[in-house]
Amino acid sequence: MNPVIQEEISGCGIAACAVLAGITYAQAKETANALGIHAEDTALWSDTEYVRKLLRAFDIKAAPTETPFDSWESLPDKALLAIKWRMEQGRPFWHWVVFVRKEADVVVLDSKRALKTNTRRDFGRIKPKWFIRID
Fold this sequence. Notes:
Number of strands: 6
Shape: globular
Strand content: 25-35%
Order of helices and strands: HHHEEEEEE
Distance between the termini: 15 Å
């Protein structure tokens, strides 16, 4: 699995779905737009249904509910994580990233363009609020 860089400020959900589907950002965005999901919509940062709808379009199975984050060790082998969680004007916002554990390698794939590396292992700096298990 490889990181995909988001092309819009609120495109992290689209990028995370692209990672899980193994496609480019442009391909995921085209599918998202056809479903009425647009990166310019800040609701992508504060509602899980948009990402769930896009995952379904790619036939990716996700857990029906969010699970509070407890520890890195207790995460499933593949998950969407909500990081940088905060409240703004009474509305929750977060940044989507993908957690992957494959054999001895554990990484977070982060779509943020400004990062030096989008394959992260700096777990002490990443503060997940909750996650969605990906089957």
